[in-house]
Amino acid sequence: MERYYSVDIVIKDRNLAYGKVNELLHAYAKYIKLRVGYPLESENMAVIFVIFKANNDILGGFTGKLGQIKNVKVKSIPLT
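^ thats the sequence. predicted structure below, dont judge the formating
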């Protein structure tokens, strides 16, 4: 069953991790309904908020791959 989720992504080192995160966001683009990013350039960080619509298996694949990237923290919350 598809549901909506809020996925919060914190990138602690933009230089090392930003490209890998963007590749995954592109790969899962059909499930992303909203994406808002805030670069914190002076701290070499970024925060990305995503509204994601998919089933648990697809969400788990997405967040699991994000979580394996060094310097990236991810948290998902079901909205419905």
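Residues 32 and 69 are 19 Å apart (CA to CA).
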